[in-house]
Every structure is written in C-alpha cells, then in structure tokens.
C-alpha cells in the first residue's frame, strides 16, 4: 500500500459515512416522526464529530506529503482532499458538532414557524445558527472575509466581490426586461383542481423522460424539494399543490437535473472526493437547464401539453401555444422556487446581499425580517404579505447554508453557456424535444460534463464543456430573445 492508496482508502470510508449522514437528512425531510427532532439532532452531531475527526486526522497530512497521484483523476483527488483537510483543521471539532446539532433542530423550528407565520418564534434559534456560522467563518477565513470563506463550501474559488460584479452586470438588463414584460398583458394561470395522485404519476414519468434511474433512486414528497445522495443511491423529492401542477412538474424536473448529474458520474469515482458534482453552481447549471432551457422550451411544452391532457383531461387550455405561454408566464409573486425565468435571479440577488451582510455582522437577525421586506418592496414594487412569503420561505439559513444562495444564479449563468453549446452540438434538438426525447440533450450533458464529477474546478468544468469562459451574456441574450418573442417586445 502506497501513501496514495492509504489516503484513498481513508477518504472512501469518510465519504461513505458522509452519505449516511446525508441519508439521515433525507429521512428528516421526508418521513421522520415530528417528535424525533431533538434525538435526530444528537445523531447528526455524533456523526459529524466522527466525520470531522476523520477529515482532520493528522495521518491525512502525512499521506499528502508523500502521496503521488497516478493520473489526472488522482491529482484531482489529492486537490480535493487537501482542500477539505485544510478547512477541517481550521474548525474546532466541538464547533462542527454543535453546528450539526443546532441546525438539525433549527430545521424543525423553521418548519413550524413557517406554518405559524411567526418569525419571532424562529428568531432565537436563527440567531444561534448565525452566531455559530460566523464563528466557523472566522476560523476558516483566518483574518480574511468571512463570507468568502463560507462560499468555498459551495463554489470553490468564488468570492463575494466577484459574484457581486456578475450580479451588477445582470441586474440592469433583468430589471429592464422585467419592467417591459410586466407592462404587457399576459396569460392567466391554470385553474384547478389537479388531482395530486395524477401529479405524482406524471412527475415519475417526467423523471424517467429526463433520464432518472429509479433502480438507483426514489421520488418522495417534501416541504422543500431537494436531491440527496450520489452514485448508486440518489433520491429526489417534490411537492404538490392541488391548484398548481407546475409546482410539482418543474420541481421534479429541476431535482432530476441534480440527480441525473450524480447518477452519471464515472462509477470509478464513486465514494471518492471527486465522485460528485464539481460545485453547487455547476450542479444548479444542470437542474436549471433541465427545468428551463429544456423543460420550458416551446418544443418540449408541446409534448408536455399532450401528457397533461392525458393526466387531467380538458384542463381549460386550448392548444400547445397557449400552454407554452402559460408555462412561461411572467407575473408577480413572492416565492423564489415558483419564480419565472425573468425574475428568478432578482430573488437570488436579494438573498445574496442579506446573507452576506449577516455573515459580516452588518445585519442582525433581529432586523432581518424588516430588511427583507424593505428590499423586496424596492426590488419588486409590492409588499410582502406574510413571513412564509418572505424571509421564512427558504430552508437554507435554518440549516446553516450561508453562501449557497448565489450558486443558484451562477447555475443559471453556467446553464446559459451550456445551452448555447448544446444548440450547436445538437442541431435537431427541438425536433427531439417535441417528441419527448431528451436523450440527445441529456446525453450531451452527461458526456461533456456530468460524467467528470469534480475532476476539474468549477470554471474550468464549464469552459471545457461549453467551449467558452463563463459569462452572463448567453443567459441574458436567451432571456431577452425568448420573452421578447413571447410578449411582443420591440427587442424581439
């Protein structure tokens, strides 16, 4: 056994334990008894303590000193192990365990506060989460910017200043497009009811159409849809609403994008540091291109319209063109996950600015609800009506995911670049989509990006797949062309 072999054996066991921790989180979101929350917090803290000890084991440093990588994949493994070890050794073990316990408990308190429309009830535990994450961020930053340190868990190499620069470049064109579209009459939304069992049946069909392998996964319901796992056990969740089947349909397609990425990673990388997505931004590029550029395209919605008629009968929409317009309807709304393509990134920019201020100590939790409501009114032009439509709508902060939100918008930027390349590589893409055949699109993504896992850093991964350095221009051009045509704008 060489130092490299010893290191990889250790890493493989650590990754296996991390998968078990992820399965506990999946269970907590889908079927754990409500009364088990406190015990689950202890369980999560216990396994996090084990994981932290393994990740910061002094032997890792010794192995890294002498390990020789056999190939490109081996060099990537060492890069990821070194990065994880560096971060783990900066965070005290008791702090890591405490964060795991508090965030596990906070998740349940968030769900209850959201149901009760009571931010004040959630505030104390969120204050504790924020304090713990600031402490962790300070340990990681070692005198640098705390928020930049937090970002590395989700988008290695990114900085708050760099993301702000991208967002500043996007905001004017997005705001102008939003104003122009909302100034034009648009279609009404769907009118229910839509049987929820029929929604779930259609959701399972759509997951298969987009390439999800149910022999290595399952679809369940959760308050906040998510994907969990890697390799041979990748699970997805969705949600249903009797009056809104798009919530279920597009949540399912979105999570299938995440899951298909994990299922497509080269099996040789399974349970290793590169055996998963390259970053959350790259991950979001897959879920967003599945959901939007493919799933909301004119070609695919024509096929989906027929499937909707099969599932629900005559649901009040005359034809496929009318259905396409409804699927892509731009309208006022509070909820990020239900936002149209034009406005979605504006929701992310709001969250990015607020969480960056929280981590820097420029905003206190006590002022968060007011800050959110004020910013929302300024950005969208109307007032938040209740906490579940405001700062209680997302689960992320309750579980300590500070630095995660901007990756959603980065994913859209990356998806714009990938879509541009995909269109060039598969010239008959619309013909395939109109037939409900996603194999050309998903096959191209699998071959050019997904199978590589975390072999390369995020920006290198997108550039290698798309042939261009990532920029916001392809996304903005796509949005202006699509919605300009839909709403009859002069720029179309």
Automatic annotation (TrEMBL):
Active-site residues per Swiss-Prot or TrEMBL entry: 255
UniProt cofactor(s): Zn(2+)
Write down the PROSITE patterns for this protein, in alphabetical order. Answer: PEPTIDASE_M32
- Set out the biological process GO terms recorded for this chain's protein: proteolysis
Q: Which UniProt keywords apply?
A: Carboxypeptidase, Hydrolase, Metal-binding, Metalloprotease, Protease, Zinc
- Cofactor binding summary note: Binds 1 zinc ion per subunit.
MF annotations from Gene Ontology: metal ion binding; metallocarboxypeptidase activity
E.C. code? 3.4.17.19
What is catalysed by this protein? Release of a C-terminal amino acid with broad specificity, except for -Pro
InterPro entries, alphabetized = Peptidase_M32_Taq (IPR001333)
- Top enzyme class of this protein? hydrolase
> What CDD domains would the database entry show?
M32_Taq
Q: Which family does it belong to?
A: Belongs to the peptidase M32 family.
Question: Which PANTHER family does the protein's record reference?
Answer: CARBOXYPEPTIDASE 1, METAL-DEPENDENT CARBOXYPEPTIDASE
Name this protein carries in UniProt: Metal-dependent carboxypeptidase
């Amino acid at each position: 056994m060489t130092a490299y072999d010893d290191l990889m054996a250790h890493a493989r066991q650590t990754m296996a334990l991390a998968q078990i921790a992820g399965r506990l989180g999946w269970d907590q979101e889908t079927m754990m008894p409500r009364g088990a929350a406190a015990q689950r917090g202890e369980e999560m803290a216990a396994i996090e303590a084990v994981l932290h000890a393994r990740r910061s084991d002094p032997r890792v440093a010794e192995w890294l000193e002498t390990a020789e990588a056999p190939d490109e994949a081996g060099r990537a493994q060492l890069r990821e192990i070194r990065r994880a070890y560096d971060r783990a050794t900066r965070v005290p073990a008791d702090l890591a365990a405490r964060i795991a316990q508090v965030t596990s408990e906070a998740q349940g308190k968030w769900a209850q506060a959201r149901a009760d429309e009571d931010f004040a009830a959630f505030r104390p535990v969120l204050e504790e989460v924020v304090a713990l994450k600031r402490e962790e961020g300070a340990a990681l930053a070692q005198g640098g910017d705390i928020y930049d340190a937090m970002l590395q868990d989700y988008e290695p190499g990114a900085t708050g200043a760099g993301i702000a620069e991208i967002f500043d470049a996007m905001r004017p064109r997005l705001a102008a497009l939003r104003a122009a579209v909302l100034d034009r009459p648009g279609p009404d939304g769907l009118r229910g009811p839509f049987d929820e069992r029929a929604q779930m049946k259609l959701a399972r069909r759509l997951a298969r159409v987009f390439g999800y392998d149910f022999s290595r996964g399952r679809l369940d319901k959760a308050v906040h849809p998510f994907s969990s796992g890697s390799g041979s056990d990748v699970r997805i969740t969705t949600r249903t609403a009797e009056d809104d089947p798009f919530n279920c349909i597009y949540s399912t397609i979105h999570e299938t994008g995440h899951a298909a990425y994990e299922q497509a990673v080269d099996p040789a990388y399974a349970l290793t540091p590169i055996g998963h997505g390259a970053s959350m931004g790259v991950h979001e590029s897959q879920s967003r291109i599945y959901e939007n550029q493919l799933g909301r395209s004119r070609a695919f919605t024509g096929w989906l319209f027929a499937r909707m008629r099969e599932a629900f009968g005559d649901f009040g929409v005359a034809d496929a063109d009318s259905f396409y317009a409804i699927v892509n309807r731009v309208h006022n709304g509070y909820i990020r996950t239900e936002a149209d393509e034009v406005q979605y990134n504006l929701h992310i920019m709001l969250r990015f600015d607020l969480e960056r201020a929280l981590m820097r100590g420029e905003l206190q939790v006590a002022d968060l609800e007011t800050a959110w409501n004020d910013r929302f009114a300024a950005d969208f032009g109307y007032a938040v009506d209740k906490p579940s439509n405001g700062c209680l709508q997302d689960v992320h902060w309750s579980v300590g995911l500070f630095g995660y939100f901007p990756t959603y918008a980065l994913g859209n930027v990356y998806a714009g670049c990938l879509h541009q390349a995909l269109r060039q590589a598969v010239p008959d893409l619309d013909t395939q989509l109109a037939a409900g055949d996603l194999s050309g699109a998903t096959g191209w993504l699998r071959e050019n990006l997904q199978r590589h896992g975390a072999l390369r850093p995020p920006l290198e991964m997108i550039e290698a797949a798309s042939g261009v350095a990532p920029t916001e221009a392809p996304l903005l051009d796509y949005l202006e062309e699509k919605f300009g045509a839909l709403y009859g704008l002069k720029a179309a």
